[in-house]
Structure formats: C-alpha cells, structure tokens
Predict the 3D structure of the following.
Amino acid sequence: MSHPRRISRRRFIGTGAAAAAALAIVPRRVLGGQDYLAPSDTPTRAVIGVGGMGQGHLGYPGAVLRAVCDVDRKHLESALSIGGPGVAGYSDFREVLARPDIDVVHIATPPHWHALISIAAAEAGKDVWCEKPMTRTIAEGRAVVEAFRRTGRVFRVNTWFRFTDRFYGFGTDVRPIKKVVQNRLLGWPLKATVSATTGFDWKFYWSGLAHARPEPVPPELDYDFWLGPAPWKPYHPHRVHGTFRGYWDYDGGGLGDMGQHYLDPVQYLLEKDDTSPVEIAADCPQQHPDACGSWRRIEMRYADGCVIVLDGENRDTQAPFLEGPEGKLFRGFESDIPNLRDALAALPDPEPQVTDFAEAVRTRRRFALDERRGHRSCTLVNLAKIAVQLGRPLRFDPDREIFPGDEAANRLASQPMRAPWHL
Amino acid sequence: MKKRIAPIALAVVLFAIISSFPLPAAGQSAAAGTGDIKARISSILERFPADAAAARDALCAEIIGLGPAALAETFARIQPPGGANDARARFAVNGLAVHVTRAGADAERLLYVKALLAALARASDKDVAAFFIAQVQLAGRAESVKSLAKYLSNEDLAGPAARALQTIGGPEAPKAILKALDAAPRSARVALIDALGGMRSREAVKKLLVLAEGADHEARRAARQALANIGDPAAGPVLAMVRVASSLGERAEAPALYLLYARRLAQAGLTSEALEAARSVLASYSRSGEAQVAVEALTLVRSILGEGAFPDLLRAVDGPVPALRAGALDMASKGTGQEAEQWVRRAEAAGPEIRAAIIEMLGRHRDPGPGAEFNRKSLHDPDRSVRLAAIRSQIGEPIPDLFSLLGTADEEEAAALRTELLQFRAASVIPEAARLIDTTPHPGKAVLIDVLGEKGARGEIEYVFRLAADPEPATRAAALGALAKLAGEFELPSLVAMLEKAADADDIVHLQDAVAAASRTTEPGRRGVALVDLLNGANPGRKAVILRVLPRVGGVKALRAAVEETASADAQVQTAAVYALSQWPDFQAAEELLQIATTTASKRYRLLALEGYVRLVGRANITGQRKLALFQDLLARTFDEADKKAVVSGVAAVREPEALRLLGTCLDNPVLGETAAAGLLDLASEQAPHERWLSGHEAYSVLRRVEALQADPGERARAGSIIMERLAQGGFVPLFDGRSLAGWKGLVADPPTRAKMAQTDLAKAQAEADSRMRAHWKVEDGVLVFDGKGESLCTASDYGDFELLADWKIEKGGDSGLYLRGSPQVQIWDAAANPAGSGGLYNNQKGKSQPLEKADRPVGEWNSFRIIMIGERVSVYLNDKLVADNVVLENYWERDRPIYPTGQIELQAHGNPLYFRNIFVREIPGDTAAPQMSPAEADEGFAPLFNGRDLAGWTGGGGGYAVEDGKIVVHPERGGGNLFTEKEYADFVLRFEFKLWPAANNGLGIRAPLEGDAAYAGMEIQILEDGSPVYWGLKPYQYHGSIYGVVAARRGVLRPPGEWNTEEVTVRGRRITVAVNGATVVDADLDEASAGGTIDGNAHPGLARTTGRIGFLGHGSVLEFRNIRLKELK
C-alpha cells in the first residue's frame, strides 16, 4: 500500500498520475480506528478539491483539518500553505479515503465528481459534506441516496438556507416563511417565483466557449483526472477552474451554481422533500451541445398543483415570492395579509431540525439537509437543466424518477461515465 | 456600474419569420443540386442557434425536409476543435438530435441517425468522431449498434462507443461488445467491461468470470464490478474468494461488491442466496470501524425479510457499535403496530442509552399507538437523558404532560420543553401557561412567561406587566422579554414610565428592548411616531430616557426628533440626543453627525459625533474609495489630534490599498501614530486571497515601520509574524533565518571561472570556501554580521527573475554591494563620502551607473533595498525611493556578453564590517515579463500603463481586479467596480490587449471622473462579447468598441471568446478613433456625434470633459487585460 504522505511541494509534478495508477485502497478497518466519536471528540476532516470553493471549506468550524486533495498542484500548494502543519496533501482522493483517521470528507470538486467521491466516501466509512449542486445528473443523485441509505453514513449538502442565515431578500431566515406556509395562511397550492424581483439573481455569465482552440495542459494540472468520469474533450483553460460551470459536462451554468441555494428552501417550504415535479417546461434559446447558455423562464409543476417559476428575465416585476389562493408573500417579508406578524404569533412553530453537522456526525442523526432532501432539491436543478437542453415540455414520474416515454430526456438523466469510473 | 444590457430578448418576431417559411417536401428536395444544398444549408445555419424551441424545430424540419444530402452537408460542417468556427453547425446537429427524438418522429429519427452514422464513418478526426458518437448516444437505437461496434477496437473511440452502446441497450448491444472484447486494445477493455456490467448482460458472465481472475489488474477489477452488478449466481464463488484471498486493495472493495451482488440476487428473486450472503457479511464485519459494511448488510437483510428482520435489528441495537445501532434504528419501520410494540418492550428492558435511542426513533415515526404511549410515559423516566429524548419525541399533543414537567425541569429540560410547547397553537397553550406561572419555579416559570410572549398572548398583557414588577430578577427578565413581544403603541407610555424608574441594569436593557419593540410594531409609515409623540410632551428626565432608545427604533421622524433635541437647553437632554445620533443605525444620520462635529463647541459632543460618523461611513453601502475620500476630508479639517484618532480607526477598517498609504502617512504623527500602527496591524492581520496589495512591497515597507514603532516586545513579535505571513502569501521566502547561515555558502571564484571547473574540483573548492566563510560571517541577535575580513557571502541557490528585499547597515567609510546573478553590483557605500548615494549599478559602462537620487540614511542606521530583476533589467528602491529605474545590468565578467540568465545573489565583502537582516526573495516566474512593448513603440513615446506585476498606478477596483501572470484578470466574485488610473489623461493613444470570456461585459473609461457613472459622467468605450446569444437585441451603440450610447461601432472584428484581441484608442481633442484587431470600428467627432442629442437619448455630460482618468469599468464579468501602454499626445 502507499502510505498517505505529505507531497513535497517541489516534487509534486508528475506524481498525480503515477499515484493514481499505483493506488491501493485501504479500508478504514484494516488500520483500525473508530467510526464513532465520543461527544467530546472533535471530528477530523479532509477537503477534496481545494480550488475556488474548496478553499472556503478548509476553515469551516466543527472539525479539524487533516488532509487536502487536488489534481492541481497550485491549488494544493495554496491549501497546504493555509492549512499549516499537520495537514497532508494528496492528488488522488482515494488515498484520502483510505486514511483511517479522517471522519468527514468535504467535497468541493466540480459537480461531475460529487457523486463518485460521495459514494466512495460512504463505502469507506466517511461522512460527507458536499458542495452544491449535489450531483450532476438525477441518476447520480439516486445512487448517492442509495449508498448513504445502505451504509448509514451522514451526508449534507453545502447549502443552508432551509435552516439558517438570512434568506436572500427576506431580511429573515426561512423559519417565519415556513410558519406562514405550514399554517396555510396563503392557502394551497402555492406558486413560488424565483427571480430578481423576489430576491434571487440568476447568473448568466456562467456560459461556456462554443468554439475554443485547444491549448496545452499546464504542467501543474492532471487534466485526465480532473475530467474523471466526464467525456474526454481537448483542454482549454476556460473548461476548468473558475469557469467550468459554463459546460454541461461538469455543471449547468447559473442553474448549477445557484439553483440549489435558491430551490432547496423552496422545496422545504412547499413540503416537497419526498417528491419531485411532474411537469417541467423551459422557455429558452437553443442550447449548444457543450456550452451552457441562458434561459428566460422555467416552470415546474408538482402533482398537487404547486408551481415553481424560475424567471430568468425578471419579466414579472410585481411577482410575490409565494402566492396562494388566500394571500401573497413578497420579498422583504411583505404581505397582503393584514397583521401577518401578529397572526403568526398564535400559530405553531416549525419543527426543529438538526443543524449542526458535527452533532449529526457524533449522534448519527440525519442532518437537516441530508442526501434524500438534497437529492430532491438537486433534482429540481437537474430537471431544469434537461428542460433547457431539450427545449420541450417534459413529464416526470417522481416515484420512479424517470421521464415516461421520453428516451432522450432519460438519456440525459442517466449518462454512462468514462471508464474506469462508474456508478 | 453603468448601462444595463438586457441579457435575453424576445424572439417572437424571429420565430414568426421562421415558421412562415414554406417547408419543402422531401421529394422536391431530392431534386435540388449539391450546389443548391450547400447554399441552402449555409443560409439555414446562419439562423442557428435558434432563439426558442419552436424556431429550432422549424429550422430542423427545414433541414430534414431537404433530405439526406442536406443532413450530410450539415454534418460535413463539423470541424476538429481549433479549426474553423463550427459553433453554428454544432448547434444545428445537436438541435437535430433533440428535434428527432421528440415523441412520434421515429421516421425522422431514423433518417437523421443514418446520415449521422454515415458522417461518423467518414470522420477522420477523432474529436469529430467522438462528437458524432455522442450524438448517436442521444438519438440512436438498435439500428446504430453495428456501426458503433466498429469503434470498439479503436483506442480513442472505444470508450465513447461503449457508452453509446450501453445507453442504447437492447439485445444486440451487449452481444456486439462481447464480440469485440477479445480483440479490443488493452486500454479500451475496461470501458467495454464497464458497459457490459452497466447493461447487466448475463451472456457476458462466462467471459467476465475468466477476466475476473485474470492477470490484468484493471480488467480484473472491472470484471468483478460488472459481475457483482449483473448478479448471476455463478459469480458467487469468485466474489466471495476476493474477500479472503486477494491483494489488500481488492479486499477493500470486496464487501461493497459482494453486497451489490447479494442485492442483485435478491432483486432476481434468489432470496435465500441473497440472505445467506448478507448474513455472512454481517457476521464477518463486526468491528467498530466496519460499521458501514455491517449497516449495508443489515439493510439488505431488512429489505429481504421485512418485519421478519426484527431479530436482526434488535441484535444490532444491542450490539456495541453505535453506528450500527443508529443504522438499525433508522431501518425500524413505521406504521406496524406489532413492531412498535416489540420496540417498546425492548426499550423497557434496555439501559438508558438504548432506551433514549428507541424513544427518538419512535418519535421520528410519529405513529399514534404503543410508541406514542410509551414516549409519553417516558417523560417521567428517572433517567435524565431518557427524559430529554422523550421531551423531544412526543407524538400527538400531550400538552398537559409537558406542562407538568416544567415544575421540576432543569435548564436543559426547560429549553427542550420550550421548543416543544411553541410547536402548538396559541389557543392550546396560553391558558395553561398563564394558570401555572404563579406556582411554577424557575427555570420552568421563565419558559411559561416566554410562551405567553412568543404566542402573542395579548389578553394576558396586564398579568405580564405585573410579573415585570416581580421582586425576583429572573421573573422580571422573562416578563420584560415577553413584553417586548406583546406590547404595542398603546403600552408605550407605561413602558417608558417603567424605564424612567428602573434602576437595575438588566431591567433597563430589557425595558429598552421592549420600548424599541413596541415602537417598531406599528405600520411602516408610523415608525417611531408614537415614541416621538411621547418625547415631545416629556420632562427632561424622561426625554433622556426616550432618546436613548430612539436609535433602536430608527426612521425619519425619530431622526428628526433626535436632531432637534441636540439643540435642547437641557444639558442632559442634549447629551442624550447627541449620543442617540452617534448610535444611529443608518447612513441618514451621517450628515447631521458631521454637522455637529464641525460646529459644536463641546469637545465631548464632537468626539461622540465623529465616532458615530466614522461608524456610519464604515458600514455605508458605498465604495471603499468613497469612504476614504470622506475620511481624508475629515482629517484635513482642524480638529484636535485626539479627534483624528477616531477617524484614523475608521480608515483602518477600509480594506483598500489607499487606506494603507493613508495610515502610513500618519505613522510619524506623535498623536496618531499609535492608532495608525494598530490599525495597520489589524488591516494586515488577515488577508483575503484577492487582497494582494497586502503582501506587496508597499505593505511590507509600511508594516516594517509599524514593527519598529512597537515598544512592547510582544506586540513587536506579533507585527513581525504578521509581516512574515504576508510575505509568504506574496510568494517571498526568507533567505536568512535570523539564527544560522543555512541557505548560504562561501564564494568560489567568479562565474566564468566556476563554469570551467570540474565538478569534483568545484565541490572541493566550495567546501573550503564554506569553512572560510564561517570564520567571518556570524549571526548576532538576528543580524547577519561580517567582520570585515574574508570573502563575499553567496546564496546556496541560483535565481533568475526575482524581487529581493534586504536591510543593510554599514559603518563610517563602509563599502559593499549586492551581486545579482553572481555579478557586480548594486552599490552600497558611505554616502557621506560618496554624495551620489547607494543603489546604483556601479559597474555599468554603457548604461546608467549612478543612482537617481541619494536616498541613504546616515551611516550606522539601517537602510532597506527592494531590488527587482527581470530579464537583464534591474530596478532598485532604496528606502522606498526609486534609485535605479529598469536599468540593464551589464556583464562585468564578460563585457561582450549579456548578463547571465541565472546566478547566485552575493553580499559583497569589501574589507569593512557589514550588517544585513530581513533578506527575502520572491522568484518571478519566467513568463511574467513586463508589457511586451516593441522598441519602436518605446521610441514613439509609449510607456507601460500597467507594470505586469501589480496595480501600481491604478486605484479602486473593489478587489475584483487581480494581477496574474502579467495580466489584469477581472474576478467579479471577489468584488466589483471600476479600476482607474491614478493620473488623469487628456489626449492620448492607448493600446492594450484583452481576452473576453463568453458574455463578458466591461468598459474602457476615458476622461472619466472617479465618481459617478463613467458611461455618462465620462465616456465609455464599450468592451463586450457582443456575439454572445445572451445579448440578443443589442443596440448598435452597445456593440464592442462603441462610445457607449453616443457612437455605434462596426461589429464583427472581435476574435472568439478565449482569444486575445488588440485594441487602440486614440483620443485627440474632440476626435475619438477605436481600432480593434487592426480594424477601425469608430472614427468620430464628439460634437458631430452628439449634435441634436445622443443616440441613446440620455444626457452625456462627460462628453464635454477634456481630461480625466482611464479605467476599466467592471460589470460582473470575467475577462483579462494585458500589455496596456499609453502615449500622451501633447
């Protein structure tokens, strides 16, 4: 086996591929170690993917950083310089997963890696804190849910607006909004509009290059490993770090970037944690097969009549965030219901959630945004992506999670990976 | 900052045009000649990408209507990556795939796929072929299998083909792969095996069994994975063997594979085999670190046996592995009374830990029945952890039970009870809460009062008022907290009266909260009005009390009232009013505070007002630049030095390079120095990745001064460590560790001589030189000291391009120098004897050898060098003054040759004592050269506007502009705004290169002021990826190169996103010309262009300006600039 080791800063170049080939996966049990933390113990953490988003994960509270991993030497060196002594660097995530002393794995790679690393981590006995969007396809999401159900590990998606923080333009967290909804002050079913008017800006600058001249791969980057399960495409710097979101192979433009941040709380509010929409329609320009483009409007309808509208053009400048037969709730917690705050006081509060990930890890309880809920809210993102790519209305079966009779949509929802990677 | 460009526009019109096209019937098109087809396809492709799905479908129908030749022509337009721009053709091909896979279009699909496969067969480039195969993966079915199979033995295309076949599935696809497997190159095998596994091909089992025990490691792993996924019983023994007799790596994968295999068995109905497999895993992975495997096995047992697995779950819950217990309880099913009953029985018999876990599980299921009853009973369990679990896990509405616990609850239990009680409706908890308050002790009592407040029990408000006067402080605190929730305008007078009388500090805080809350609960328009009414009629004592709360209420009326009271005749009221303003929450009060600060005679009021003003400016939603400008104004006014301290602390909170400079100028001020120093340390104690200026030389030099000013050794050490951190982040490494001579060596001859020496001789000479060196170079108190005898000291490594920092000190008559790349020298000598001073390139014969000015400090004091060497050129700063400006360093050793590309850095021995410290070097990567200006340009009078290393000479940017590899890169996620030159320019020629990313939007500001929207207050030369589909419907005056809103540019000369463009902007009087990639796109006279109004109909007062700054006007997009150079026209 290859021992986890600190990679010498100067000698890193070239070891990435070699380490991948010579790798031996060492399960936690071979080296002993505990899977259960005493309440007094602080969990230990590794961060896989330490570029843009990953740098933020190094210092998250609740765990001690022990290892960082990246296929780009520059990212790795920068993370090591921040991490300080006691933090080891790796270029192959499987070596990190083989370490028996890591409890929690943070995944901040581009989305096309999220599912594979999550599943491998669960099978290696790790708990996972994964960046949004949770997975790149619906099938990958199902596979993650399945893996964490089977192995009993704890999972969270790195978005948090369903349980903490000011919810975009609302001047409050999501709880009072939940209270309004769960007590049916707006009636039922509801229509949610996610647009600049209601406090959410869709970032259309995540657009890919539709015609790029290939460039040589820089020596610090193991491009083949970076691509991993994604189809091989000639290298161009715009495909990778910082701008990868503009390509369908790795993410899905502004939808991929902000979709789960915006939509997960909506799903929570609409009480749709166990289901998905049945009809999806997108109004958008035609999409390039490789580079993501913009869209004007996406509408998703649930079986009970609830609707989510993503308004990319912000055409409806009067739109409330939530609208039901009995009332509307606007950004800034404004409402057409008189004395809303007083009315709220008399009503039951929402159920408390497990919002401390370290506590979930210690007590083996489900985190507020676990893999099941995360998968459903990421499915909203992935449904929208497919609707944009195909440009035609879709029907979805939320139980079987397939598009009945729409083979092309199903093929986008479940895509085979580049060998040797597979679900 | 400026202009808003609608990213998307309607295509209704476009669509209407397209859909009205008559679609030719297939028969007609067959008659069309090839020339016709080419022209038709060209014109159709021009209309891609379609703006909407309907338009796309119309275009696709048109192509398909033209028949196979048209499809072939479309496919023929696909180019290898990097070839001609084929984006439209790719849009079309992919659009066709989407179009023909719509429901009920199988005939069209077949036509498309056949043409696609024919194109694939013709494709000679592998990337083009891969693109076609990816399209087959979208649209192909059984008809494509045979064609795809041909690529299974192709090293580059086997993977894509196998994935397409896997997607297509059906009976033929696995057969084709299986047939190709033996002949496939080794590199393609795994892809083929993966596809077989992915399709769960039973017919592949036989072959896979062989591979699963073969010698090829990768094929073996893939085959085992495939076998497990297929789940054929024949694979059982092989997969079981892996668990005991394989390499460590394979054994590690074994349980997951074996359980996958077992799951597939169960799915195939082979339940007893599956169960046996799962149980064997469960039995053999029982240690704590293997919980995930055990949980997985148990999950399978559970899914096979259903309720019958209860004994297995029970065993797991009883076991010693907590993660397995949690997993088992997670599997406990919901809704079966019988099982719930069994769990209850188990819980009753178990210890507290397991009992609590079962209670929580029952609570999660929310089933009325035995679980609900047991959980309710457990509220009174003797064990506290069980009680806590029970409180959190109640089912239904056991409100009296929860209330009954409050009497005996401890803090944690009370908190849990509070959370639970708030989950009920107000009407079902208020009466009971009110009834119990008097008889319940703390902390339960506080919870009850809290419930009244949280649940809006306005009917109980008088009772809560009574409680607010309770002698017991905890009761008072809870009641006042509840009042803050319940009280409204009507109760304000009572609350204010209470506040006036209150003596207890906690009570005052709570009452202030309550008053503020009661004032806030009115409608927005009446915010603060009730409290202001009270203020107006009050006596001075009450006024002071109310004024203290006013800032918490905010609003225009409250602000006006507070301002009015600052003129009060009563000193107490006046003080309270000034204080209130100083605490005001929003920027509205800033003007008033400034007014007070500049006019009041009272020192105290002035300080209060200044502090409040500084706080508000610091938090205001304005640019850092603007904040600094306001602070600088303030500093320029004649306040006490003591007042200025408040302003200086404000400056230190603005994270901009200018703040660093401003604070630096205060360091020597006897009154402000300390505050400025502390502010600088705070500023530098943390650095975000985009704040590169904090690790640059300017920060280094200022922080060194801060360090020297610290009297306390601890503070000095802290300053030192902050400096080291910043240097390290800026890429500097220490050459001298302050303790030893590590990293240094003795001098062996000169470079040409050394180059001629044999390796062994050199090593020997080096060893001798090293021992000589140690006799004369010593470390004393963190200083590198030379005793005046012996030879120069050399770095152990060689350096090419670098930035070097070094402090040096000499004695009277002293002489030394720094050798760069082994060559003399940057001069050091006693400036009293050599009036030109130090820092010149002493041995230069052709180029300048004297320093630009004398910047030496007196002998015996420390001096600081900053030396930048890139290529042949050297710049030297001595004590922050530029003394050598980009001078070529001549080769002293071999006069006819240029300076060596790399070499050691040497501290020159010259027969007198020397002192060095703080020596750092930053290596500059080779490609980070300064702007590539041609000599002709230099002769013409062009000079770089951007030095390729940092943003010296530029200002603003809000953190969104970074210097990377000689380029300015815009990072909108780090900050936004405009980056301006520090100087103003009137007439000039500006040349630069820029790279656009898709949909990039920026602008070049010219003759612009620092403030205002540069597109109107100055002029903006548009920078925009105007070809992006995001910008449908641009106005011509928004195209790239336009004078925004005034003169439209010619379009179509931009290179594609990701490639570099060149631009030249000439501004001479009223004439502006813009050339992009050599083509003139704007040549206009401003007066003519704006005569009778501008084309965008907006006012452009900036057109009248004759001078101003040049800047990049950020608009939230990624893009890059480089080689920015400018010639001023005089």
About this structure: The longest helix of chain A spans residues 371-390. The first strand of chain A starts at residue 44 and ends at 48.
